[in-house]
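Quick question, first post here. What does this chain look like in 3D?
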Amino acid sequence: MYSYLQRIASAGDLTTYAEAGQIVGMDISSPVGRTEFGHIPDEINQYEHWAGRPMISAVVMLKGENIPGKGSFKCGTGLGRYDGHDYEAFRMQEVTRVHEYWKDHQATRHRALPRARPGFS
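> Answer (accepted):
Ran it through. Tokens below.
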């Protein structure tokens, strides 16, 4: 999923959780599936934060709502990027940061750290 998010970000696009779930072969139509899937973008964001890059999962939105899920805001809070106020400003800032970073770095894609969880790479 990491390389998928890199492609989406470098193209300046957005995607949905359903589309990202399909990339890793997960059905996110159930609460259990959504919870299980939610760990993948969180782990990727933690790696990105560690590497000094923006939260790449900011390009993943709820279908038809054009906003990220609650987990994205929780992750942003945990990483010290979101203070719990003005979620719209945070969303727009992270999407802009992701698009700008990956537009400039599309030729030098980064590899994710190896993880046991499927879908990380």
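Residues 27 and 33 are 6 Å apart (CA to CA).
The chain has a mean pLDDT of 86.
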